Amino acid sequence: MGAILDGNRFVLGTCYYPEHWPKELWREDLERMLASGIEVVRIAEFAWSKVEPTEGNFTYSFFDEFLDLAEEVGMKVIFCTPTATPPAWLTEKYPEVLNADINGVLYRHGARRHYNYNSPVYQELSKRIVEKFASHYASRPCIIGWQIDNEINCEKNVFYSGSDSKAFRVFLKDKYESLEALNEAWGTAFWNQTYTDWEEIHVPRKTYSDSTNPHEVLDYTRFISDSARCFAKMQSDIIRKYLKPGDFVTTNGLFGNLDNHQMTKESLDFMTYDSYPNFAYCLDAYSNAPGEMKDRKWSRNLSEVRSLSPIFGIMEQQSGANGWNTHMEAPTPRPGQMTLWTMQSVAHGADYVSYFRWRTCTMGTEIYWHGILDYSSRDNRRIAEVKDIHEKLQGMKEMAGSIYEAKVGIIKDYDNVWDAQLDVWHGRVDNASQKALFAALQLSHTPFDYVYINDASDAEELKKYQVLFYPHATIMTKEREAVLRAYVEAGGTLVIGCRSGYKNITGRCVMDKLPGLLSDLTGTDIPEYSFIAPDAGKVTVKWDDREFEASVFADLLQPIGAGKQEASYTSDYYAGSGALVSNVVGKGKAYYYGSAFNTESARVFLEKLDVISPYRDVVSVPESCEIAIRKKGDDRFLFVLNYDKNPAQIELLRKGTDLYTGKEVSGQMEIKGYQTLVVKL
Amino acid sequence: MGAILDGNRFVLGTCYYPEHWPKELWREDLERMLASGIEVVRIAEFAWSKVEPTEGNFTYSFFDEFLDLAEEVGMKVIFCTPTATPPAWLTEKYPEVLNADINGVLYRHGARRHYNYNSPVYQELSKRIVEKFASHYASRPCIIGWQIDNEINCEKNVFYSGSDSKAFRVFLKDKYESLEALNEAWGTAFWNQTYTDWEEIHVPRKTYSDSTNPHEVLDYTRFISDSARCFAKMQSDIIRKYLKPGDFVTTNGLFGNLDNHQMTKESLDFMTYDSYPNFAYCLDAYSNAPGEMKDRKWSRNLSEVRSLSPIFGIMEQQSGANGWNTHMEAPTPRPGQMTLWTMQSVAHGADYVSYFRWRTCTMGTEIYWHGILDYSSRDNRRIAEVKDIHEKLQGMKEMAGSIYEAKVGIIKDYDNVWDAQLDVWHGRVDNASQKALFAALQLSHTPFDYVYINDASDAEELKKYQVLFYPHATIMTKEREAVLRAYVEAGGTLVIGCRSGYKNITGRCVMDKLPGLLSDLTGTDIPEYSFIAPDAGKVTVKWDDREFEASVFADLLQPIGAGKQEASYTSDYYAGSGALVSNVVGKGKAYYYGSAFNTESARVFLEKLDVISPYRDVVSVPESCEIAIRKKGDDRFLFVLNYDKNPAQIELLRKGTDLYTGKEVSGQMEIKGYQTLVVKL
Amino acid sequence: MGAILDGNRFVLGTCYYPEHWPKELWREDLERMLASGIEVVRIAEFAWSKVEPTEGNFTYSFFDEFLDLAEEVGMKVIFCTPTATPPAWLTEKYPEVLNADINGVLYRHGARRHYNYNSPVYQELSKRIVEKFASHYASRPCIIGWQIDNEINCEKNVFYSGSDSKAFRVFLKDKYESLEALNEAWGTAFWNQTYTDWEEIHVPRKTYSDSTNPHEVLDYTRFISDSARCFAKMQSDIIRKYLKPGDFVTTNGLFGNLDNHQMTKESLDFMTYDSYPNFAYCLDAYSNAPGEMKDRKWSRNLSEVRSLSPIFGIMEQQSGANGWNTHMEAPTPRPGQMTLWTMQSVAHGADYVSYFRWRTCTMGTEIYWHGILDYSSRDNRRIAEVKDIHEKLQGMKEMAGSIYEAKVGIIKDYDNVWDAQLDVWHGRVDNASQKALFAALQLSHTPFDYVYINDASDAEELKKYQVLFYPHATIMTKEREAVLRAYVEAGGTLVIGCRSGYKNITGRCVMDKLPGLLSDLTGTDIPEYSFIAPDAGKVTVKWDDREFEASVFADLLQPIGAGKQEASYTSDYYAGSGALVSNVVGKGKAYYYGSAFNTESARVFLEKLDVISPYRDVVSVPESCEIAIRKKGDDRFLFVLNYDKNPAQIELLRKGTDLYTGKEVSGQMEIKGYQTLVVKL
After folding, report:
1. What does the buried/exposed string (b/e) look like for A543-578 if buried means 16 or more CB atoms within 10 Å of the residue's CB?
2. Which of A586, A608, A630 is the last residue of a domain?
3. Which of A52, A216, A304, A316 is the catalytic position?
4. The domain containing residue C632 runs over which residues?
5. Of B214, B603, C463, C650, whose CB neighbour count within 10 A is largest?
6. Which residues of chain B lie closer than 8 angstroms to A205, CB-CB?
7. pLDDT per residue over B56-112, tens digit each?
8. Ranges for the Beta-galactosidase C-terminal domain (chains A, B, C) (predicted)?
9. Per residue in A321-377, pLDDT tens?
10. What is the reported pTM?
11. Which of C342, C368, C395 is the last residue of a domain?
């Protein structure tokens, strides 16, 4: 990792497609990149045919020639395995390698990622091409690292091929050993679903009302994640046989139905992220609704990346308008936005930023996915902005390797994430709460982390957070309850929202009083519950002197044990029922809140629990700006990012050094529209 | 039927799934039901695998054990045939039993009702399992009746398997005898559709613009109805071989593409209905639009059930929130709504009410379809409400067997119902009128019946109605015209709406002057007609001193024969044309109205024909309440049902006995939100 | 063509289906037509089975009998080939003749046009039936011409059968000769799409995000057009072997994915159009949005027809409500609208108008597609209107053969039309501009022509236009640039809109500075461009004293060479950048406008270029009326068409003869709602 995440400086890169351009242009392009501050190119992720133009015939000269040039001009290279786009000869000869829709109709050649992970043929041919790539190219001095495939689980993250059904059976036999255990876990007594032979089991197929057994779908999602991870690991294992010392293995994300944490742990040196905040401005996607965070929402994604690798790379950073010929019509980033979005990535921990892409492609689906340069490669405003960013980052070197600082965490786990995807009752509360918590934290300038747990988690990881939200812990296990309990006992404050604890790890509902395994920890009993009816009007909650609205659902609470009713509903037939119960456990406190969060209620929690706006003594900024702090030793680096087209008035309450200019700054300042400020405090 | 519809008392039941719970819980559950006033359980409708776990291997012990217990504790049982959910081994081995979509893609295992009625294999295996169920269990003393399959034609009521095409050909040969006759009936000269071989005919398949020949689709719908009925009759015939004296055969409905009247007549002792008024409050379905009747709309469905069996059972009555994991997000019924919806059923003639279900399922698609008890089975508000209902019904015993009373009828026939389904011109007027007539009748407290007719109907059945509406008799036959004529001649008042009489029984348009076979009866000619153009603005009709809006369509009328122009259009180019013609025939009168009904015009008709609010001298109630009268001998029983969350002020203009309290009541009273009142007059 | 487009008179016709009615009605129908002024019937387009009821068995008597009668009563006949609807026996025996959806699911018997053009079986059977039809019937004296098939490319204009893939490969081999050339043209280096064998190439199939290679789709669209044209030519060639002298060959259109110009040139004597302006009033389609042109939009279609044949026929003219049983719910045309829509056709150059259809069909999908007569064939308002139209046209005889007059043209070419269909960035600007230009021209009473060009075009064709708009010449070739240049050099004024010149003929983007091949001609450079961002608000342009809004896109312009910046953006970050550049070339001037057109900006261009309202010294009419001029020698014939239901006040500024009445007219006049005026000036 020495070449790009060394903790000593920031590095810029770009994505380059030697196969798209006449070789005569290569030298000019590479030299111009270097002159612009770009010192790394990623190549070859869609170039299988350049090395294996027909089955079993390998030829290396194309990239050899490119790498020779890279070494000559001094360009570093991230090399990719090409498995995201199988050649036409491959899918034509072996259609079983293709993914299918739920009706079994195959997805055909022409797009990307249309293969399935479980086809033995594809696995065999992929192994061979990765082995060929790695064994031939990995020793090249200009190469600094490898990207596996491209955007694993992008495009589609559900798979319905015949190979998937076969592999699913293996996965299930391994997990359950007997059909009896599987029938019990999946509750197949319901609707007479009982299986009497393993061959009767398939990946989801077409059913009435798309009503595949939900416990099966949960296992199926785990199976997809496993399939993708194993496919990545197969490649990582091969690459590592040939990897030069100091070179890294990564892949670019983040996509769904995939345990990115486990994949990172077992196959990668670090995760890279593809950041396209301009999606928010596509003509058909734009929303100016209240609470809509637009490009600032990408800070939520960057927080997800931080949960994988506190210091990470951006493999693809927006550098022009995005668009396909078939959909997505996006404007060109306005002057300043490219810098803004780069600094957004850096603020969250990106020490490597690679722009997608150098030249805009002149052919195919992505002719409107603009790179730094337009079709003509003329000098333009955006390459000028890249040079300016490069200069800014030069002044920020000492910050490299510093870590984003947060005292608040939001707990997540893949079981609940995946359950909320398929279960609309779970999804509705979770979507509302996740969106509201993010907005409340962002707008109140309260930095936070996502914290992923599983049955093997160590409570130690949690203890650095003063407050943890676990919005809807629908699925709960004894192991996780123990982790949470240990966190609270040690002095932590845990806030759990409605609909928690009513499912076990298979997604089956527990027959205990709710919130099940969380009753004791939260001192809470739930004798009754309901969606807030569509004719209910505004349902309110009173917590001491604060009254706010409940959202989506109402668990009607009663304290048990040492539990204390902190807040009550004040409307509809729930009036008087408990809406919030607290429970002192050890040195800490656990709260159970009976509803989903909205921005208003989330803000009340942040205030009441005294974690809101931790930097209010450092800087005063309006809601329209994000702030972030990266910390390294005793140094703190403050980012102020203005997402608005209008200028913002801020006040720096301490003296600091503006890292763009090197000058001391403090007091009242104006941040222009889309501008950013980076201050060493 | 002695056990539940004996005319002497009301009986409560519930739906129970022994296969979902540890056997250890069975006794506790049954005893607790009995203690709550529940004396019947329905079981086994999704339990094929419990008796035939693998092909041809039968084992009866599971339900033997349950029935032993039922007999021990004194619980009555409605036993079901299990054909709604074929076992996994069956559909895996014989995929031809599955239903398919119109493209031929099979619907797979995991949901329910995914079989097709016409598969010889499924018919054979169904016969065998029904024979096994009936022969083994029917003699058990605790069994009081049988339910065939479950919700016939629910989930999907169109079938596109290969077996369906084969059976469709048999159905058509039987109906038409020759291809010439079929070609003529289907008008295949249009678009060169002529068939020259029976094998060229298929159930509808994928066509451009989904434009299968409409006359074929009409026959296809009749074919589906036939297929479903025959499947039910096959089971009924088997069950009746083993049925204990006094036991009944039923099934639960009501679903589309099925002649429920014929099925009831040939296979059932009575129909049972599954009533879920809370569907109106699902988050994604709720509408508060003007004229939206919400849960009160279920009275329309109950009126349909009454047309099949004046006294009937509710096999599944809402007892908690409804929801699937994949869709439907419904609130828990508010305090009182469960009673309200039970009394809504009772008001219309339900003497048996069975709650779906006892415990909420902890697994599968229906984890959110709440029963009386929640997952934990703890005591809760809803089981308290069941006990309270039980007590209320104890006081109402003398009403059992009484009949809903109505002087207004709405005529329906399956040919027009099915034609309106597929013909958007027919459907648009019919949907508008049916909705408007129901709303006007409900809101004006004018009880009504649905009256189904066909070519074999007897005019006697109609004579008890003072006024009959036949909103859009698009398809008309000589036989039906004669029935209507006999009704009018005998003194009845018949109101027919626009677009009547222009199709024959095959759905082909007649080449006569319109309204075709109805011209003479109504004294009406229609020289011109049109949809009301979208730029027409408000089109008005004047009838004596009343002016109201026309809806959707305008037949421009001229009286012929003894016809009299009662009302005229007063706007657009139709101004001056006839909008309503009356014709005295014998002792009665027939009206032809040139438009579809809206709530306003429907109300004018009720007033002008003097049938509105027949109980206005008995009780004065606001629009928000439904009233119903059940009659038995000289006794009349008045129901007042408040669907609103706010209290209603009513005035009882006669003295009566409140059957909940046994006390005499009269004069001004307040009915609280969701409350009900039952008074013996 | 002598019989209907002879330049001496107007002829009325109708569409008749002898196979739909008892033969006993034929004579009555034909005689009644003649009595109403109808002297031509079109027959047999869906009647394959009447001549070949089973495979290879031919029988001619049905139409022989009809033609005998036609000749007896003096009715002229347009005979059709029946290939639009293959018989049931054909598609059942040879399913390979069917079209399929993109997943390969076949479209089945029952609708029309469900065949594919490239099936060798269908080609063979079509050739045979056409040969049989033509050889047997073409000599009949009553026949005056032939219609090939029916509405070629209607219903579906994409084809995905196996035969299509095979034929596509032949088309591509013919076009590219080598896979290397194809790979280059399609840019298959993108996403590793490179083809190594012709068999790997297919018509588009199911891909992720429907993202088939756009250059392939462009070629595929050309291939569809070719396939349709060849199918028509195959028939035309056969018919012409048997055609009587003076008889014509036509087909009815216009439909997409078809080069109608090439088809007309190679296969037809002239094109006929099917005109149904009442589509605008379907209940589910009606829009009253500002700028919505409703039925007047059909003048845009008629302008397209004029670009094919300045004098043409209407093969199907709206004569009643339109509708299918499955969708389309349209009102009956109001009194006057049928005349209005007929005169709309005539105003644009229709000398033959044939009403669809005589009697309304009583069966099948089109029971609501009303003809002149209703189901009963009684006399009605619409047949009275036909007679009145006939009389009006009698007075207009001298106008026959006259030509629509326009000084403004809008340039189109199929490459850009098809590219805009599949490329949403191209489509969005083009749709906006085409709609706006039409509206601005119509509302300002500025007649215009569509002018289609291709690489073989001659600049002479363009020189009759004072001003030509080429709204978005995205695809540009050297040949076309030369044609445009020659037009400008000769004194023409050319206006080109944004996004021009950035693609080559394969749809690949050029690597030149933009607008590429158009830079020199327009004196324009485009250093930067963007969609107007959804949060941009109103983006304005200032041109001298006029300020107006830009639309959709902003090319930021800089003049080069002799170019002159005529207008600038005045808002957002584009403020100050060029919005309009002009360039004097020879005697003319070329303009490059950096945005798409809206009604406001289009009107400013018409004014500034001094071509607006050329007849303002002849007649003064409100926006609600269309005006058109047909010219013959020195005579000019003025049409005023009032599309509104309200009367319009006009002033005729010259004396003329009202051709309906023969009287001299001038000065102030009122045109009633839906009325028309035709004046010889």
Report:
1. beeeebebbbbbbbbebeeebebbbbbbbbbbeebb
2. A608
3. A316
4. 619-680
5. B214
6. 108-110
7. 999 999 999 999 999 999 999 999 999 999 999 999 999 999 999 999 999 999 999
8. 626-680
9. 999 999 999 999 999 999 999 999 999 999 999 999 999 999 999 999 999 999 999
10. 0.97
11. C395
